[in-house]
Amino acid sequence: MSTNAEHEPEASRRDQPAGGTTPPTPRTPPSPPATKPAMTGAKPSISSRTGYAWVGLVTGALILVVVLIFILQNLETIRVSLFFWEFNLPIGVAVLLSVIAGALVMALVGGMRILQLRRAAKH
User: Fold this and answer.
1) CB 78 within 8 Å of CB 94
2) Rounded distance, CA 94 to CA 82, Å?
3) Cα(99)–Cα(67) distance, integer angstroms
4) At what angle do helices 49-73 and 91-122 cross, to 10 degrees?
5) Rounded Cα distance, 81 and 96, in Å
């Protein structure tokens, strides 16, 4: 008996003939994979990251068109004062710049919170 016989499962030792040699087992070719998934009544999911990215790009493009229309309809110039700076801007551009500044502040606060949570998760 070989040294590997101690580590073989019980079922494989019972299947071997008493002589210690095993007859060659015929190999069957693997069956081809199924061409259609089994229908369970639920529709298969067709969403993907590429699809979500495409929807995001289209949505962004539509928002950009709306913002451009807003800026073009609000071209009246106003005087803007910030600390010791004073300058003239169209109303649409001033509103756009204030929205961008608000988004940057929001991103900064959100980024700081993410860093806090990552540090807490490491410890």
Assistant:
1) yes
2) 12
3) 11
4) 150
5) 16
| Closest by CA position to 96, among listed 74, 120, 76 | 74
Q: Is the pLDDT of residue 7 over 80?
A: no
User: Model-level pTM?
Assistant: 0.49
Tokens representing residue 69 in the block: 């229309």
**Alpha-carbon gap, residue 72 to 90, rounded angstroms:** 9
HEC sequence for 33-72: CCCCCCCCCCCCCCCCHHHHHHHHHHHHHHHHHHHHHHHH
- The three-class DSSP label of residue 82 is strand
d(CA 32, CA 14): 32
